[in-house]
Amino acid sequence: MKIAIVGTGYVGLVSGACFSEIGTDVTCVDIDEVKIKNLKEGIIPIYEPGLDELVVRNVKAGRLHFTTELTEILDDVQIVFSAVGTPPNEDGSADLKYVLQVAKTIGENMNNYVLLVTKSTVPVGTAQQVRTVIQTELDKRGVDIEFDVASNPEFLKEGAAIKDFMSPDRVVIGVESERAKEVMTKLYRPFLLNNFRVIFMDIPSAEMTKYAANAMLATRISFMNDVANLCELVGADVNMVRKGIGSDARIGNKFLYPGCGYGGSCFPKDVKALVNTAKQNGYAMRILEAVEEVNQQQKGILFQKINTFFKGELKGKTIAIWGLTFKPNTDDMREAPSLVLIERLLHAGCSVRLFDPLVKTIDIHHKNLTFATDIYDAVNDADAIALVTEWQEFRLPAWNVIFKAMKQAVVFDGRNIYDKKELSQSGFHYEGIGIK
């Protein structure tokens, strides 16, 4: 089977590499000529563990190809996946111009049956818009060619995307014809060999499933952050609370970890988009509106703790920040809580020293902002450490070395990865999230 994937961003590139790994002939398409040239040379535009090896191996095997022209391969493929970006508009709604442009290109150039599958995260009703665009272009040409549209949202976690794709807990596919269902079943048959679940449903339900899943996970995070903040006020330990409620089978223990807010390319954007979809339909998603509000407040929690500890006298203080990305094992800085902390510290007159294993530059430029070579370099003469991202290499630092290097031994743990008792015994003042 031959397929095309339009868009070589995170979703498109991971999907293309993984589909080719199971024997599918895949052509990834992108209008960015430099990106396509680099991909042909094995230069990967994003960081994802194992992705570079997967791409190189399948290019060498002749199963993975790259091009800037969808029209050149359209007659040879049965399925076209649309994995282009859907950035948020100012009102939080998803911008569908790239999705609809793919549909328009297909309608203008298709000569045989094509199944266009939307893999981008799109609002409910997008498939109908896509169908209308294709049909309009076919009518302009005066041709009658059969086609189908489908929805196949992705549920990949950055940092574990290849495992998630190759060993999914479920594959959600929205279709509206038996032919589309048969084509998608054939594509995903290799995954069914290990009893992976493919859940077929109508297209609007598939489109909604993606948003609902991310919104539920975001809700759990904001709920626990709210609980953590209350724990501090009443003298409870959120870690104990988390274990207590997580042992309830009806709740489970995943996504119950409090911290300094969620970020990334999915949760913030998808929560806003779902709230906006509700508004367009005359309904208020009050819980999700609160989820978003709590998260925005939580991104300022570390600055609040630092400011309170130093009694508002931050000018001239040096703060070391460990971790910049929104989560470990990715270089994604979109909506990262670290950006909020950095901006506020600089505004307050602090000098800020940054270290992240992957990110070596950010879009904030200030004379008091510098990058360190490692965590130990970052803490030299620092008045405090703020841990924002829980990278593995931050888990067990040499605290005795750090104690000697710092001006003041103070740690603000935005992910609760350290033991308060242990650090206190080592001479540090420690503050976590939801820990009195």
Describe this entry's structure for a reader:
This protein has 436 residues and is an alpha/beta fold. It folds into three domains: 2-201, Rossmann fold (3-Layer(aba) Sandwich); 210-297, Rossmann fold (3-Layer(aba) Sandwich), CATH 3.40.50.720; 299-431, 3-Layer(aba) Sandwich (Rossmann fold), CATH 3.40.50. It is built from 16 helices and 14 strands. It has a six-stranded parallel beta sheet with strand order 3-2-1-4-5-6, with helices on both faces. The chain has a six-stranded parallel beta sheet with strand order 11-10-9-12-13-14. Helix 13 (337-347) links the parallel strand 9 (318-322) and strand 10 (351-355). Helix 1 packs across helix 3. It is elongated and about 75 Å long. The relative contact order is 0.09.
- Rg measurement, Å: 24 Å
The name of the CATH topology of the largest domain is: Rossmann fold
- CA(first)-CA(last) distance: 58 Å
What is the H/E string?
Answer: EHEHHEEHEHEHEHEHHHHHEHEEHEHEHE
Helix fraction by DSSP (H/I, runs of at least 4):
40-55%
Structural class call reads alpha/beta
Q: What is the count of distinct domains?
A: 3
CATH class term of the largest domain: Alpha Beta
How many separate helices?
A: 16
Number of strands: 14
Mean pLDDT equals 95
Q: Looking across the biggest beta sheet, what order are the strands in?
A: 3-2-1-4-5-6
Spans where pLDDT lies below 50 across 5 or more residues: none
Instruction: Report the sheet with the most strands, covering strand number, pairing sense and barrel closure.
Output: 6 strands, parallel
CATH architectural name of the largest domain: 3-Layer(aba) Sandwich
Strand content: 5-15%
CATH superfamily of the largest domain: NAD(P)-binding Rossmann-like Domain
